[in-house]
Amino acid sequence: MLGYRDAQILDITGPLEVFSRTSRWLRDKGLHRGDAYTIELVAERDGPIVTSSGLQLFATRPYRRVAKADTLLIAGGIGCREAMADRALLQWLRDFAPKASRVGSVCTGSLILARAGLLENRPATTHWGYVGELRRVSPSTDVQPDAIYVRDGNIYTSAGVTAGIDMALAMVEEDWGQPIALAVAQELVMFLKRPGGQSQFSSHLAAQFCEDDKLRELQLWILAHLESDLSIAILAERAAMSERNFARRFAESLGTTPARYVASARFDAARRKLEEGDLRISQVAQHCGFGSAESLRRTFVAELGVSPRDYRERFRSTRQG
Predict the structure, then answer these.
(1) With a threshold of 0.90, does the pTM exceed it?
(2) Domains in the chain, ordered, with CATH?
C-alpha cells in the first residue's frame, strides 16, 4: 500500500485488514501454512505518516526500494493533490505498474493513477465527489460514477473510502474463490457485494449467511461444489440430519428452502462468471450446475429478462462491482 501525508487512514487500513484477515482465516482453517498475504505500507520515506485524521501510520520503507509486488494499492485522501504533483512518484508508478500483477486505487487514489497516465482509455471510478475531476485529469477515461469498484485488466479502481474494502474482497475472491471471500466478509461483518448497482442482480447470498455453525459450513461447501448433486438427500446426509429435519432447520435459519438457496447460489455464480471470465456459455452452465446452456438461458430470461449472452455483452466490459 502506497501512502503519503494526509492520506485517508481508512483507505489504507480497510483493504489491508481484508488481506490480513484472509491470511489468518486460511491459517486457522489449515488451508495455508504461513501468511497467504504479506502486507506493507510504503511512502516517500520510511517512518511515520500523518494521515488526514491526525493519526500516524508507519511506513516500513521508501517506495523507491520496492522492486516487486503482486498487488500495489494507492490510497486516497486530501493529500492526493500533493502526490499528483510529485513527478518522481508518478514516474515510479509508470515504471512499476507493469511489474505488478494488479494495481488498485482507493477513493481519490484514482486521481494519482490518472495523473500518471495509467487510466487512459480505461473504465474507472472514484469517490462520487471527484468524478468531474477525474474526467478532467484523464479525459479518455470512461468514468463510472455509480460503481463500487471497477476492474479493467489488472487495473482496479474503487469508489470512496470503504469501497476499498469491497475491492479488496473482490481481489481475495479472485485469488481464493467465493466461499473464502464470503467467509472473510462475514468475519468483517461486510457484504461480499453490497446491494445496489448493475452487478447486484444476485440473490445477495452474503446477507443470508446464517449463524448456525453446521449450516454455515454446509453453505460454504455448497458454494464450492455447485457443479455437484445438491439434492436434499445429499445435503441432509452431509449435514448428518434426516431430510425432514434438515429442510425444517435450513428454512428456519435462512428463511428459504435448500432448493431455492442452491438455485440462487448457482445463478449468482453464473452471473459472476459471465461478468468476469471468458468461459463459453455451455462451460458456465456446467461449472455452475445448470447442466446445459439452455437451462442457464431459461433461468436468466426468467430472472432478468435477458439471455446469458446479452447479459455478458451489457455488463462484462466495465467489470464493475
Answers:
(1) no
(2) 9-179 (3.40.50.880), 195-315 (1.10.10.60)
